Amino acid sequence: MSSSVSKTCRSLFSTSAIRFAKLQGIALMVGLASCAPNTPTAPPQAGGSPGAAPAAGGTLAISGAGATAPNPLYQRWFREYNTQNPAVQISYDSVGSGAGVRRFLDGTVDFGATDAPLLDKERQALPAARGQALQIPSTGLFVVFAYNLDGVDNLRLSRESFCGITDGSITTWNDPLIVKDNPGVTLPGDPITFVHRSDGSGTTDIFTKHIDEACPNWKAGGGKTVEWPTGTGAKGNEGVSAQIQQTRGAIGYTEYSYANETKLKMASIQNKAGEFITPTPEAASRALAGAQVPADFALAVPDPEQKDAYPIVSLTWILLYENPQDPAKAKAINEFLKWAYSPAGDQAATELGYIPLPDDLSSKAATALDTIKVAAN
């Protein structure tokens, strides 16, 4: 982080906790030694390059690319913000966190988006002229096991069961472990089709880091891409959700809002405390309680200990440049993000099943944005 933006930051998550979940008496304490923001570059105009002049009529055309998990929320935010600010048009290409990070580092977008915090090697790959690569949290999200199984509406999966499905050691729906998890339920002998991401994915990063913690026999590690021991791949949360929807006996991981929008069934899964937790935004919010958010906002809670917490949860981030190539666009992006932290932005997040940032965290993120070199008024 740049020393010019380093500062002492106190706790981010206060007893206001996560507004969305209305948690009572839970404080999400954040230790921030320094808070650094990010700055966007300008998107390439047709036939041009980053930093090209605004479109005709004074409209600022801003482009971003990256994570598919927050895409439904981002699209709604961009539409609503444009209604209130017609001169600012933000487009977003939902290509996955891996591709989004690459486009950000290449400077072909004004901002990137990722569900996986930047790696040191990715930060080092940013051209020096852009300054530091900075990540600003936008919202919280969670990943679910969505499934397609006729006659089974409330599937429960112990850690042994979902670990076995993911590593390929459990291959049929009437496996004794799954039967044990679901007393009184008639499970078919159909083969299990596990659906995973085929592209570099922050959702995969969130999911596999949990699997790596929860599953003793998991050998593939965690990250945006892994060598899957079983299953079939699909691109994006959109593709995974569609593949599950079209395949009888399928189960896979996808972000909650996609499963909810497509009316996919979602399994209750066992957390570290041994409780079977139904995936809801409220339960996901509890996974963040007590977490320590580091200086670069790269919060990680791969296997939360809270008894009533849903266990596969993360923040997601907007990637900005410390030294933006187009200060006017940087200013517009900063103003948009501050609007996203407002009650209007929170309402959209809540309605779509995301987790709005608590007041303290959004305040620190907004302060970080203020250090970016943007156009003067």
Q: What percentage of amino acids are in beta strands?
A: 15-25%
Mean pLDDT: 87
Q: How many angstroms does the end-to-end distance come to? A: 27 Å
- Helix % is 25-40%
Note the main attributes of this structure:
single chain, 377 residues, alpha/beta, D-Maltodextrin-Binding Protein, domain 2, 2 domains, nine-stranded mixed sheet, three-stranded mixed sheet, 12 helices, 12 strands, disordered N terminus, PBP_domain, ABC_phos-bd_PstS, Phosphate-binding protein, phosphate ion binding
Describe the protein's architecture and organization.
The chain contains twelve helices and twelve strands. It is an alpha/beta fold. The protein folds into two domains: 3-141 and 295-300 and 310-369, Periplasmic binding protein-like II (D-Maltodextrin-Binding Protein, domain 2); 143-280, D-Maltodextrin-Binding Protein, domain 2 (3-Layer(aba) Sandwich), CATH 3.40.190.10. Helix 1 links the parallel strand 1 (60-66) and strand 2. Helix 1 packs antiparallel against helix 11 (343-352). It is elongated and about 65 Å long. Residues 1-56 have low confidence and may be disordered. It comes from Myxacorys almedinensis A. It holds the Pfam family PBP_like_2.
Describe what is shown at a glance:
The protein has 377 residues and is of the alpha/beta class. It folds into 2 domains: 3-141 and 295-300 and 310-369, D-Maltodextrin-Binding Protein, domain 2 (3-Layer(aba) Sandwich), CATH 3.40.190; 143-280, Periplasmic binding protein-like II (D-Maltodextrin-Binding Protein, domain 2, 3-Layer(aba) Sandwich). The protein contains 12 helices and 12 strands.
